[in-house]
User: Fold this.
Amino acid sequence: MKKGIQVAIDGPASAGKSTVAKLVAKRFQYVYCDTGAMYRVVTLAALNQGLDLTDTVRVSRLAQAIKISFAPGEPEQRVFLDGQDVTTAIRQGRIDQNVSAVAAIPAVREEMTRQQRQIAEEGGIVMDGRDIGSTVLPNAPVKIFMVASAHERARRRYVENQEKGIATASLEELQREIELRDQKDSSRKVSPLVQAPDALRLDTTSLTIEEVVDRISAIVKKTLNELA
Ligand code: CDP
Ligand code: CDP
Assistant:
């Protein structure tokens, strides 16, 4: 018997993708893959090596050379760069500000997409990002496009930073940063942030995490029944 289906969750920054994806994965005992974390790791590695991020050849080579891995952890999954735990380091402001530039490099995307397809190959996976339903897993039977107002998304990120003890910009600055990143992610040439035609749009602005998890879980259950 197959291990389960592929569930693709896309949307702009802080729409609640990773929080919800993690909980849906737990409910179905699926693997969770945070593709944003993978682009963040490449960005961290490039900054650590002092690379000029406009040097797309060297950044792409680095993306192919490093080893990105995940391990289960509470309260959050751990992320590793060449065996070193970088779970907290990839959430710094300097990564937020530079990740969209790295994610716009075609060869970096090609490499991340290849690795993501490998991770999702066997099914039983919830993968979140920007281009999962549109490019990485175009045949995923469940595709969600999660949105929320920019104001609400900035508020969520602000609270999250405070809770995690991550140095945070003001609410206004965070909203500007989020809007700028959305604009960069939506306007890039390769695999931009876009709703796949067959994805279901879910506005989470006034929904609790639990409500969103329940809605997506119901869709996954319905799809599993239809496919059975
Ligand atoms: O958590 P947050 O929404 O801030 O972002 P993330 O999911 O960690 O993704 C960080 C950045 O990686 C995004 O702003 C995109 O530039 C890039 N990304 C991407 O291009 N494609 C993906 N599938 C996932 C993330
Ligand atoms: O992965 P993405 O950037 O889309 O968002 P996230 O990191 O999952 O969510 C950002 C913050 O919003 C987290 O601290 C969540 O707890 C919070 N959140 C919320 O308050 N209400 C929701 N419906 C979803 C997320």
